[in-house]
Design brief:
Elements lengths: L5 E10 L4 E5 L2 H6 L12 E4 L7 H9 L5 E6 L13 E4 L1 H7 L11 E4 L2 E9 L2 E5 L9 E10 L3 H13 L5 E5 L2 E6 L9 H16 L4 E5 L31
Parallel strand pairs: 11-12
Antiparallel strand pairs: 1-2, 1-3, 1-9, 4-9, 5-8, 6-7, 7-8, 10-11
Helix pairs in contact: 4-5
Length: 251
């Protein structure tokens, strides 16, 4: 697969050392391993090959893969989430916890902790002292991916729509091409979303790298509304969720 190709990938991710299932996009695999989630939608992961959002070993394998073929690849820690670093396990005393953790009384062993922007796992909590492991949960593990590229997105309008949905979670855009130039009409509610500005800058690069567009025009349309319509338009203008990432993506 060439860099910039937009693909859909079905995969199962295992700990290669003990065959423990870590993550899957396939419902039948989740059921087989007693990890099925009733409220989850199981569907292939949409990624842009070579964009760097996946772990190195998976990126390398995808670059050599073909559509509609099954692959199994073992990825060593140095091309996944790195080796475990003993220096990344730290002890914090009661005073440090009080200063740096929002609610230290509600800490749970095995639960997540965030301190100074670093995310870790609480591995011990006793007499007010805590041991926190700031290694990635999959650090030191060899990972096994069983995967299949189920679709390569080739239509240019679909490519743009797919990139938009990946970045914003919305499929309410209108896309029109004029040669290599593209005009994107954004849904009105997105104009009130502060994070749209950041997503737009990332989109500009992706559109040129993956779709080969030239001039990109974003079109805002604000029709006249009756009093009260803005409150009843059915969209949340605050905190619109742009996060859509599965495991296997690099953190």
């Amino acid at each position: 697969m060439d860099t910039g190709t937009i693909v859909y990938v079905d995969y199962d991710l295992f700990n290669a050392d003990n065959d423990e299932l870590i993550e899957t996009t396939r419902e039948e695999t989740a059921k087989k391993h007693d990890q099925h989630e009733e409220n989850r939608t199981y569907e292939p992961l949409c990624v842009t090959v070579g964009e760097g959002n996946l772990i190195e070993g998976f990126e390398e394998s995808l670059a050599e893969a073909e559509a509609e073929k099954d692959y199994e690849v073992d990825i060593p820690p140095e091309k996944a989430y790195g080796e475990r670093d003993t220096n990344a396990v730290e002890m914090l005393g009661p005073q440090q916890l009080a200063r740096q953790v929002r609610d230290p009384d509600n800490l749970e062993v095995g639960g997540p902790v965030e301190i100074g922007g670093r995310k870790g796992t609480l591995v011990m909590f006793r007499a007010g002292r805590a041991r926190i492991d700031f290694n990635h949960a999959l650090a030191g593990k060899t990972l096994r991916y069983n995967y299949r590229i189920t679709k390569v997105v080739e239509d240019r309008i679909e490519q743009v729509e797919t990139l938009l949905k990946m970045l914003t979670g919305s499929d309410d855009f209108e896309v029109e091409f004029d040669g290599d130039d593209v005009t994107i009409t954004i849904p009105e509610y997105l104009g009130y979303d502060q994070s749209w500005g950041m997503a737009k800058f990332q989109l500009l690069r992706s559109l040129r790298d993956s779709v080969g567009v030239q001039t990109i025009t974003f079109r805002d349309v604000h029709p006249v509304r009756e009093v009260g319509e803005l409150e009843d338009d059915g969209h949340d203008h605050e905190g619109h969720d742009h996060d859509g990432h599965e495991h296997g993506e690099e953190e």
